[in-house]
Amino acid sequence: MDIREIQNLIKFVSKAEVSEVKYKTKDFEITIKTPLYTPENTGFAQPVQHSFPPPVHSPMVAPPPAAATPAHPEVPSQPETPAEDESKFITIKSPMIGTFYRKPSPDKDVFVGVGDAVAPGTVVCVIEAMKLFNQIESEVSGKIVKILVDDATPVEYDQPLFLVDPS
Q: The Lipoyl-binding domain covers which part of the protein (predicted)?
């Protein structure tokens, strides 16, 4: 089973609203557990347990509550754009569930910032899923006008990440 198949399985489980799915073959086993929605549910991702020969368990830790002030100074504060103006922008969305990072590593510069030009194939961020860092590339040409997600925060499948002005 490759990473794409695992990602598709995780997407299926989250959309199917089941509490647990086990998939097992001769040399591979994965168990995906999710809470069913209740009003008490916090919304944080639950641990995904998987085991490969030999078994490996890596519990996820829930992210700390969001701070009232920006925790990442490299994200410039952006003036709010009226909603009707955003209709002319193209949205780059997350192709998977994971943790969004603007940099390839903590000591490197961000992939893109507001005002940067992008073209198809330009890496705009990475999303960590199951200890794998997946580079996310732009599929459109244009200029980044807004970054919709804070660095090192969880993202959902199909969540908007960037707004791009194609003109």
A: 89-165
DSSP state of 11: H
The rounded radius of gyration (Å) of the Cα atoms in the chain is 18
Q: Report the phi/psi class of residue 36: left, alpha or beta, with left for phi > 0 and alpha for psi in -120 to 50.
A: beta
State whether residue 85 is helix, strand or coil.
helix
Residue spans of the domains in the chain: they are 3-33, 87-165
- The CATH number that domain 87-165 falls under is 2.40.50.100
Which residues lie across from 117 on neighbouring strands? 143
* pLDDT at residue 12 in the model: 73
Secondary structure of residue 151 in the 3-state scheme? coil
Give the tokens for residue 13: 């489980």
Tell me the per-residue pLDDT of 133-150, one tens digit each, with 9 for 90 and over. 999 999 999 999 999 999
| pLDDT tens-digit series, residues 36-77 | 544 444 444 445 554 444 444 444 555 555 554 444 445 554
Q: Is the pTM of this model over 0.70?
A: no
